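Renewal narrative, Specific Aim 1. Our central claim is that a sequence can be written position by position from structural information alone. The example that follows is taken directly from our test logs and has not been curated for this report. It begins with the structure tokens describing the chain, in the order in which they were read.
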């Protein structure tokens, strides 16, 4: 890939060519909201920097970065000046923006628009009118740089969340921007993929001379690459003088919550009945009942229906805070010899999966991107159907929080979102308000869900599911895009749900969260459960998955 021009970082005068980003007096407020998210903000980032932008959930990190990219800048009242490489952002046309500023969204589902990896890589280049030969060369160079050759012709909807994240970065870099903005880019990556991703960013920064700015709640893995860090707080940005402080590991529980660890389920929580987990990789005989992904039940894609045979409602009426029905025989759900693939032409995602999850516990599933974690959750939620094998769900009701919380957000205001299922599930506005407050969402009633930060949308989607009181709560990366305080809130909510008799199964790349919150940790590999252990044992013996 071609090297970008790299200027000296010396000199910081206003309008200096040595600055990649220069913001002066920037204020911004979303429509219908009196209090501004950003207020009189000044910020400068030198060319060639690898900068971290930290701050609490809803502090304005995503808003600030999006205001530097005119095509995605949010609607609202804005004052002040923002420049990228000396040019006012307000004056940039589409071509200038593409050539100067690359942006990688927090959720790749909001960025990927094409059906295949190849076409996604070429999409931006086509829109800029790049010649066919130059386009092929850039796609080839970028694919080689990121190691995408083996899945260049895959359908994008068959990729794991982590691979979609890498694809989003690669597609942006094929345009060769000189400034790269990333919003929580590692939130859906497993620990090994995270290291590879960050090393790729490091190479982009050092070898290609691209200025990199990363908004993150998890700065610790990035500290070895970063050259500077900034904290956004109260609408303003301040440089972090002591970057080492960003690497400190914090407890998710206060002293009054630590006692729950003494009653962990340990090995009784999740177990495998299969002895040959790494045995045969092909199913015994032809699987004739395979359905294409388009044939899955989209009507209940994220809120699953009951498995009871008595025809009761999907969610028995509750007060939204109690689990009324207990699990059968101590098992919330069981999978036996489960095989699943999205289409006949694709490979098997689940390969003879045998696993059972006990009731009243928090279970964490870890593993590499593409190993089958999200697919297993979809099967448990009954939004995907096994082509072979059996799933028995002892839980009467189940709900799934997907990686992209927008899939659950359909209303015009936060209040309306919280009340969407009130009449069906038997809770009132007071309970909805209390649930919102418990998850740190007070004061947001009138906001549009899409005007919230990524972390706030995650909390809102979780609040909706907790209000209906599902016995089986399925979570796909629940701490994605959340700061420490929000992760603490979710940790307490999950423990409370388990204490009330519910069951939580979460796919997680947040190993620190899994270690502190889960009763047991299972590693998924190649569509099967490779091992399951109490958190202490799992992380003590693991070479690559370490907290």
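The sequence written for that structure reads:
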């Amino acid at each position: 890939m071609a090297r970008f021009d790299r200027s000296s970082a010396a000199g910081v005068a206003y309008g200096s060519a040595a600055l990649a980003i220069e913001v002066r007096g920037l204020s911004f407020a979303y429509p219908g909201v009196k209090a501004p998210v950003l207020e009189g903000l000044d910020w400068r980032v030198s060319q060639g920097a690898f900068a971290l932008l930290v701050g609490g959930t809803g502090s304005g990190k995503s808003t600030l970065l999006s205001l530097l990219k005119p095509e995605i800048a949010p609607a609202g009242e804005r004052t002040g000046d923002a420049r990228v490489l000396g040019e006012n952002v307000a004056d940039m046309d589409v071509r200038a923006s593409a050539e100067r500023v690359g942006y990688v969204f927090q959720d790749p589902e909001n960025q990927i628009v094409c059906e295949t990896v190849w076409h996604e890589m070429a999409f931006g280049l086509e829109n800029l009118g790049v010649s066919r030969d130059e386009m092929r060369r850039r796609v080839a160079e970028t694919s080689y740089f990121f190691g995408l050759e083996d899945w260049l012709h895959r359908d994008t909807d068959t990729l794991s969340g982590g691979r979609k994240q890498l694809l989003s970065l690669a597609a942006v870099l094929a345009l060769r921007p000189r400034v790269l903005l990333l919003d929580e880019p590692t939130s859906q990556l497993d620990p090994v993929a995270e290291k590879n991703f960050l090393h790729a960013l490091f190479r982009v920064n050092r070898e290609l001379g691209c200025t990199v700015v990363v908004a993150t709640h998890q700065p610790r893995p990035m500290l070895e690459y970063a050259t500077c860090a900034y904290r956004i707080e109260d609408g303003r940005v301040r440089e972090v003088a002591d970057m080492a402080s960003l690497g400190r590991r914090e407890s998710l529980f206060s002293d009054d919550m630590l006692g729950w660890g003494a009653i962990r389920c340990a090995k009784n929580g999740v177990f495998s009945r299969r002895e040959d987990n790494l045995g045969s990789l092909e199913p015994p005989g032809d699987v004739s009942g395979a359905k294409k992904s388009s044939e899955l039940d989209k009507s209940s894609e994220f809120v699953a229906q009951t498995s009871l045979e008595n025809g009761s409602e999907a969610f028995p009426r509750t007060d939204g805070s109690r689990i009324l029905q207990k699990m059968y025989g101590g098992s919330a759900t069981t999978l036996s010899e489960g095989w699943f693939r999205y289409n006949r032409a694709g490979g098997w995602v689940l390969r003879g999966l045998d696993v059972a999850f006990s009731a009243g516990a928090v279970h964490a599933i870890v593993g590499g991107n593409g190993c089958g974690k999200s697919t297993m959750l979809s099967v448990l939620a009954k939004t995907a159907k096994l082509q072979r094998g059996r799933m028995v769900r002892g839980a009467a009701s189940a709900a799934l929080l997907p990686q992209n919380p927008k899939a659950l957000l359909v209303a015009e205001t936060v209040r309306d979102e919280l009340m969407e299922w009130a009449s069906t599930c038997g809770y009132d506005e007071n309970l909805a308000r209390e649930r919102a407050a418990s998850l740190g969402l007070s004061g947001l009633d009138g906001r549009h869900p899409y005007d919230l930060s990524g972390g706030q949308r995650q909390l809102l989607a979780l609040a909706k599911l907790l209000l209906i009181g599902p016995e089986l709560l399925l979570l796909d990366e629940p701490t994605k895009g959340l700061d420490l305080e929000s992760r603490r809130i979710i940790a307490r909510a999950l423990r409370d749900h388990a204490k009330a008799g519910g069951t939580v199964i979460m796919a997680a790349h947040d190993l620190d969260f899994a270690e502190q919150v889960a009763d047991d940790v299972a590693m998924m590999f190649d569509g099967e459960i490779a091992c399951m252990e109490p958190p202490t044992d799992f992380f003590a013996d693991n070479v690559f998955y370490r907290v």
